[in-house]
Structure formats: structure tokens, C-alpha cells
């Protein structure tokens, strides 16, 4: 059995959904189909998920919502008409949105989640109806049937019983159309995964039914060795290991969500990234092991939006528990961190900036000064992480020097270097404004001459 996931661009219009049907029909092993909400039809379009977030925010501010509901319904209406489906499906969607807007607003995050999920939920129902209408027996299955997730305040993840519950889907005779992006807590409360989280749903389903393959359909032929929007004509990656992909998708390879790797990795289901617009292209396979390619570096990614908490105190290295107490202050603010490069008397804690507010930033700085008696404490913003990844890197000397030279030639200063203990990655912290220039310079260094 194959589980396939179709991303937002693959289900953005009637024409795209017709391609999806043709792909599913072409291989009878494709029995479980996870779908995203309709995404962008062109560069300047708005994803349905973003329209829904606008709707949820307007509802929370008690603003007029009818026009915003209509914007979402119009997207589905254009799809339904193009697929020759009965228009009544749009009335059902409008009613569903009004019901969600009337929902409990006590917890704003959960209220937004319930509205955000309407894109995937209604799209899955619509696609199941379309498949059936063209003679491909299909049924919509709700995540309520078993995709159990944890409670707040932690980020959403599937509980172990989700895999047991969803295993029954492997008995299906019809094609199952399953909405991506959300699950339900044990108490029946809807929670969404992070943005881009339909990849995670597909991976959970593939692991639950022990699929022979997880196919992730998107709008590019394969995973490239660098973001094709920044680097001209980057090298295609035919095979990549789970570890390499995990490191690359953590920092900018938005083509596959980093949290989507764990479920399939655990039981060894291979992943194939493919293009809905060119399904005969072989795509990229994500596997446990791959033959050496002759190149030490497999890919280079870059992501912005990082901040650094810089702390310095003389003799910090002799103070038992300093690091623990510092990280405890961040934990108390429910903040996770990414890297902690350190010297004898100083340490930097690098975190995603979106977790910071002016209030928690002030609290953190005050506590570090008062409780740890640090001499210098500062929060710096506007950093990017550039990550060079390759299984072959540990057998190659001089890579860090080559990378540092290429970066310095752009005029940028390296703020931080972290050689991951996994030995498949090398991370450089730099100022955000140099990100694209550095990515291009590193690509030239490691790929253009190879
Ligand atoms: N290294 C990379 N290889 C391929 N695509 C990449 C890479 N880095 C970023 N991308 C971007 O990821 C996009 C696909 O991911 P996404 O927009 O989430 O698709 P979907 O709508 O199918 O979920 C591509 O259009 C491409 O612009
Ligand atoms: N629709 C959600 C989930 C998702 O995975 O979407 P996409 O497949 O378009 O990346 C989002 O926009 O975040």
C-alpha cells in the first residue's frame, strides 16, 4: 500500500485536482490520500489557510466575518464548478465555516486551530466526492477516527495510540481521503500541527499502515541541493538519507516538513518527493542509507528568524549548574532553543525569534542578570542559520575552512559556528541580510566546481 500526500499547490484548483485523480488512478496501490487545503494558484495568490487565519482573527476581534467566509467559499466554489460537482457542497462548506466561527473562543489558539483546519477538512470531503463522481470509489475519513494528539501547551504531536488506531485503514477497499494538518486530543479538541503540517499527517498515516512507500506530491520535480528560488538551477538530489533531509528541512528546505520524517523513519518507510505537474519524473527518495555520490555535501539550506541570548560572566566555566539555570529561565517562558555555542566565560543561546515578545524578553534579561549575576546580558535579533549537510562530510577534512572562506568573501561576519555532533551538518549563524548572498557563495564553492 502507498500513502500519498498532495500539498496545497497540488489541490489549488479543479485542474490540479484532476491531475491528482489521474495520479491516484494510475497505481491501485495508492489507497490512502492525505490532502492539504487549496494553496496558491499563482505567485500572488493567497492560500486558503491564510484566508482562514484572517477569518479567525476577525472573529476574535468581533469584526464582520461574512465577507471573509465568502472569500473561502469562493475558492471552493470555483473548484467544485470546475469538477462538475453539485453546488450544494458549497452551502455545506459555508455552513461549516459559520459553525466554526460560533465556536468556543475561551482559548484563542484552539479557536484559531479549529478554523484553520477547515481548509483541509472541507477539501478532503470535496476530493472524496469528486473521486467517487468519476468512478473511483472513495471515502473521507476524519482525523477524529484516531489521529489522537497531545494537549496544550506543548506543540502538537501525535500520541502513540494514533498509530494503533489508524492501522485499521490498511484494510480499506476504497480510496481513503484524509485531511492533513490536524488531529484531536483525547478530549476531542481539534489541534493543528505547525504550518506545512499536512506532510506530518501523511507520514503518520504511512507509519500506521506500514506503507511500502510514502509519496509526497508537490510542485517541484525533486528536492534540489539548494532553494531553487535563491540559487539558479541547483543540482537535483536523487537520493537523500533521513538524517540529511531532517537537517535540511529544519532550516529552509520547505519542500518537506522536518517533523514529518520521524514517523516514517522509525519504521523505515521510504519517502518519495514527486511533482504533481510532472508525475513521471522520478523525484527524490528519502531512505535510511544511500550510495556515496562523490560529493561530500548533499545540500545547503538557509533560514532566517533567529535571535541570540548572549550571556557573559567571568569564570562561568567553574560555576556548577550555570547552563542548567540559564536554560531553566527559558523553559519557564516555554521557549525552546536551537544551539548553545559557548566559550569559557560566555554562552549564546540561539532560538527562533517568533517565540519572543517585548515582555518575555525583558523578563528573561532581568532574571539572567539578577539570578545568575551575569556581567553582560543581551538579546540580539535578525540572524539566519546556514546549514551545510552531507553524510560524506565526516570523511572530508577542510570543509569548514572552505565554507568559512566562501562566507568571508561575501563580506559577512560569521557570528556562530556549530559542527553538529551528528557529523552530517555544519551550521553558521550570520546576519539575516547576508543570507542569500552566502547561500549562493556556498553553493558555488561546493557544487559549481564538483
Ligand atoms: N531545496 C529545495 N528543493 C525543492 N524545493 C524547495 C527547496 N527549498 C525550498 N523549496 C520550495 O518548496 C516548495 C514546495 O513546498 P510547499 O510550498 O510546502 O509545497 P506544497 O504546497 O506541495 O506543500 C517549492 O515550490 C520550492 O519553492
Ligand atoms: N494548509 C496548511 C498545511 C499544509 O501542509 O499546507 P501545504 O501543503 O500547502 O504546505 C498550511 O498552509 O500550513
Quick overview of this protein structure:
The chain is of the alpha/beta class and 450 residues long.
Overall description:
There is one protein chain. Strand 6 and strand 7 (190-192) form a beta hairpin. The mean pLDDT is 95. Helix content is 37%, strand content 21%. The protein is globular and about 70 Å long. The chain has a domain at 2-219: 3-Layer(aba) Sandwich (Carbamate kinase). The longest helix is centred in the first third of the chain and has 17 residues, at 66-82. The protein has 14 helices and 18 strands. Bound molecules: adenosine-5'-diphosphate (ADP) and aspartyl phosphate. Residues 48-75 form a coiled coil. Keywords: Amino-acid biosynthesis, ATP-binding, Coiled coil, Diaminopimelate biosynthesis, Kinase, Lysine biosynthesis, Nucleotide-binding, Transferase.
Amino acid at each position: 500500500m502507498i500513502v500519498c500526500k498532495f500539498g496545497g499547490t497540488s489541490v489549488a484548483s479543479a485542474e490540479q485536482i484532476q491531475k491528482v485523480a489521474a495520479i491516484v488512478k494510475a497505481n491501485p496501490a495508492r489507497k490512502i490520500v492525505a490532502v492539504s487545503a487549496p494553496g496558491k494558484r499563482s505567485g500572488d495568490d493567497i492560500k486558503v489557510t491564510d484566508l482562514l487565519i484572517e477569518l479567525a482573527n476577525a472573529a476574535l476581534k468581533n469584526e464582520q466575518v461574512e465577507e471573509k467566509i465568502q472569500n473561502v467559499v469562493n475558492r471552493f466554489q470555483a473548484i467544485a464548478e470546475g469538477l462538475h460537482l453539485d453546488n450544494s457542497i458549497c452551502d455545506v462548506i459555508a455552513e461549516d465555516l459559520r459553525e466554526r466561527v460560533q465556536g468556543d473562543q475561551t482559548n484563542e489558539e484552539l479557536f484559531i486551530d479549529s478554523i484553520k483546519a477547515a481548509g483541509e477538512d472541507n477539501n478532503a470531503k470535496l476530493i472524496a466526492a469528486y473521486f467517487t463522481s468519476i468512478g473511483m470509489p472513495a471515502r473521507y475519513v476524519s482525523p477524529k477516527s484516531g489521529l489522537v494528539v497531545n494537549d496544550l501547551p506543548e506543540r502538537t504531536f501525535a500520541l502513540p495510540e494514533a498509530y494503533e488506531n489508524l492501522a485499521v485503514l490498511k484494510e480499506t477497499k476504497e480510496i481513503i481521503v484524509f485531511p492533513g494538518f490536524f488531529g484531536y486530543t483525547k478530549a476531542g479538541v481539534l489541534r493543528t500541527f505547525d504550518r506545512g503540517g499536512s506532510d506530518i499527517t501523511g507520514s503518520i498515516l504511512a507509519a500506521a499502515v506500514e506503507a511500502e512507500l510514502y509519496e509526497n506530491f508537490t510542485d517541484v520535480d525533486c528536492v534540489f541541493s539548494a532553494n531553487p528560488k535563491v540559487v539558479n538551477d541547483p543540482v537535483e538530489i536523487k537520493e537523500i538519507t533521513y538524517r540529511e533531509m531532517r537537517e535540511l528541512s529544519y532550516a529552509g528546505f520547505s519542500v518537506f516538513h522536518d517533523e514529518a520524517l520521524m514517523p516514517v523513519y522509525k519504521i523505515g518507510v521510504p519517502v518519495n518527493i514527486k511533482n504533481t505537474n510532472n508525475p513521471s519524473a522520478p523525484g527524490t527518495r528519502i531512505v535510511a542509507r544511500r550510495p556515496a555520490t562523490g560529493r561530500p555535501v548533499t545540500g545547503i539550506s538557509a533560514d532566517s528568524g533567529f535571535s541570540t541570548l548572549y550571556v557573559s560572566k567571568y569564570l562561568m566555566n567553574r560555576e556548577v549548574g550555570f547552563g542548567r539555570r540559564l536554560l531553566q529561565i527559558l523553559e519557564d517562558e516555554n521557549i525552546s532553543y536551537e544551539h548553545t555555542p559557548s566559550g569559557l566565560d560566555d554562552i549564546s543561546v540561539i532560538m527562533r525569534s517568533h517565540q519572543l515578545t517585548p515582555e518575555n524578553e525583558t523578563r528573561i534579561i532581568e532574571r539572567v542578570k539578577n539570578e545568575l549575576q551575569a556581567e553582560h546580558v543581551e538579546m540580539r535579533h535578525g540572524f539566519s542559520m546556514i546549514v551545510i549537510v552531507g553524510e560524506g562530510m565526516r570523511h572530508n577534512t577542510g570543509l569548514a575552512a572552505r565554507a568559512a572562506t566562501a562566507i568571508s568573501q561575501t563580506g559577512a561576519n560569521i557570528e556562530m559556528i556549530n559542527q553538529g555532533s551528528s557529523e552530517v551538518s555544519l551550521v553558521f549563524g550570520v546576519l539575516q541580510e547576508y543570507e542569500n548572498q552566502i547561500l549562493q557563495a556556498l553553493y558555488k564553492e561546493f557544487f559549481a566546481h564538483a
